[in-house]
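User: Hi! I have a protein structure encoded as tokens and I'd like to know what sequence might fold into it. I'm fairly new to this, so please keep things simple.
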């Protein structure tokens, strides 16, 4: 029975991913810019942000929320900022203080140049707050990404740590998506909160 359920979930996940990618493509750039600014304002006003001395962020691309304002705010307030670098099938994080040495890598991602600093795992840096991108999230903390499992693997080592806040970041239209429920596999790592342009949702 579990095998049948897993196969059904995989099929649903694939169809859901395709539908979400298609809907994301239809979001206008002006909508992304406006909603990203509102999202940043809500996140910066949150307790999780205020209390964080170290933040693992991401650089929004391909219809994701623009995180430039968040990263700038973190630098300006003296927080340590780490951003991801993809290496083969793994993802590690590099501490960065400016965009001077960022390059465009695979999938259009912006990341620190390979010779800038040695990347480290989430477990190594133990950030107070991890901002996690995704195609969609649920209010219960479920997440669906592009299917490459970079973040699930990166977060696996700290999934039981309560001192590291895992916060999904998406637009409100992609929270509890209309396309259907987000199935969770055993390797999926749940979020503790989700930030949107309408505010912060605390997951149960």
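Assistant: Happy to help. Inverse folding works backwards from shape to sequence: for each of the 204 positions I chose a residue that suits the local structure. Here it is:
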């Amino acid at each position: 029975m579990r095998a049948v359920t897993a196969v059904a979930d995989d099929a649903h996940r694939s169809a859901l991913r395709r539908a979400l990618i298609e809907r994301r493509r239809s979001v206008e750039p002006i909508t992304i810019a406006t909603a990203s600014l509102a999202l940043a304002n809500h996140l910066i006003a949150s307790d999780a942000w205020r209390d964080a001395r170290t933040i693992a962020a991401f650089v929004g691309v391909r219809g994701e929320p623009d995180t430039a304002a968040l990263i700038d705010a973190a630098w300006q307030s003296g927080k340590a900022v780490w951003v991801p670098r993809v290496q083969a099938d793994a993802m590690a994080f590099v501490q960065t203080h400016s965009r001077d040495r960022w390059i465009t890598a695979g999938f259009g991602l912006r990341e620190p140049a390979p010779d800038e600093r040695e990347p480290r795992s989430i477990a190594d840096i133990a950030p107070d707050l991890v901002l996690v991108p995704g195609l969609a999230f649920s209010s219960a903390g479920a997440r669906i990404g592009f299917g490459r499992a970079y973040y699930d693997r990166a977060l696996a080592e700290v999934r039981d740590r309560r001192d590291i806040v895992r916060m999904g970041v998406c637009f409100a239209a992609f929270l509890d998506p209309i396309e259907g429920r987000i199935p969770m596999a055993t390797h999926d790592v749940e979020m503790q909160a989700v930030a949107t342009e309408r505010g912060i949702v605390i997951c149960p």
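A useful reference point when you look it over: The chain has one domain: 2-202. Feel free to ask if any position seems puzzling.
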